[in-house]
Design a protein that fits this description.
Helices cover 74% and strands 0% of the residues. It is mainly alpha-helical. Helix 1 packs parallel to helix 7.
Length: 134
């Protein structure tokens, strides 16, 4: 099982980062269940290969994650505790959010670095072109 306190601490830490950066906050608003509960996450943190696999094997008759709210939550949480690294659905969702936020922050940092490098190279090319005109 994962450490509940560690999840809460990390979740708050990353949420604060997203709240402080409007661009990251915008990306979070566009996140989908498929991105959140992606195959890598599901394989690493549950007994399932995908969210669809989990829903199908749950025997709750679910066809998509939005239907989870309609089932008996005590039974669903027991299913989650038995088949994942988490105690309940809420914790599993937070763990997925943490992993998603980390990934997006890493990708965002790489993109910003590339943009800065491209801008620097563009300035160099512009200066070179001006010198060649002279």
């Amino acid at each position: 099982m994962v450490d509940a306190k560690k999840i809460e601490f990390e979740f708050k830490k990353y949420m604060d980062i997203y709240k402080a950066d409007p661009e990251l906050g915008h990306l979070m608003q566009q996140m989908t269940f498929q991105e959140l509960f992606n195959e890598k996450f599901m394989k690493e943190n549950s007994k399932f290969a995908s969210m669809d696999d989990m829903l199908f094997k749950s025997d709750f008759g679910l066809t998509n994650p939005l239907e989870i709210e309609k089932v008996n939550q005590d039974k669903w949480n027991a299913f989650i505790a038995k088949n994942t690294e988490c105690e309940n659905w809420h914790q599993f969702g937070k763990l997925a959010m943490i992993e998603w936020m980390k990934t997006v922050i890493d990708l965002w940092a790489q993109l910003k670095e590339k943009r800065a490098k491209d801008a620097k190279n563009a300035k160099k090319a512009e200066k070179k072109a001006q010198k060649e005109k002279e």
